[in-house]
Write a structure and sequence with these properties.
binds iron/sulfur cluster; globular
Length: about 230
Amino acid sequence: MAFDLIVAECFGVDQPTFQGEGPSTGVPALFIRLSRCNLTCGWCDTKYTWDWKRFDPRKESRRRTVVDLLAWALGSDVELVVITGGEPLIQQKKLLPLVAGLLAAGKRVEFETNGTIVPDPALLVDGVRFNVSPKLANSGVDEDKRIVPAALEAFVASGRAVFKFVTRSVPELDEIALLVGRYGLDPVYVMPEGTTVEGLIETTRVLADAVAARGWHFTQRLHVLAFAEARGR
Ligand code: SF4
């Protein structure tokens, strides 16, 4: 039981899919979504990983062994495995043997993390990348919870992180710029907030010129455009 992980869902084997966000957008990917989060973002689109007022943890999560998860992932030829959440680094000690096994089998691993937990040095190895998504005031979470300097500094120092911000308005780019300047975050990706095609397109048109003017990257949410945010895609 020592290496059981609390998992919300795994997908990408039976029904192939892509990484939907960030630098690997469009790359075929498997997803291991861990349950639980240490933040409570108002616009979170995976509240079934942590909001136990709305969801039942007994229905929305189950324990799976590393052996079981490895067998699932290695049953596919897809190279990229995205470990997401919730906040996956809550369980990072138990993730070490899973990541080691995936890398040994020739997979690449990307973590989707909110950047509030200092990564274990054993995860800072070739084949692992962190898509770090620090949350802005628009999340509704207090700044001292959502911005953890030691964690951001560790991700910057690792050289294995990109920094992705979810936003819906041009003025929020100033808030991003403050964090980018304060912590030396690079490279920066800006992603429109939205769970509908119409909303994403509208926000993209609002943001695109201003993001380009700052020399930052822009990323879409391909899974929303392609699969209408269906769970397990
Ligand atoms: Fe949701 Fe991510 Fe915020 Fe956690 S950090 S509440 S998973 S958006």
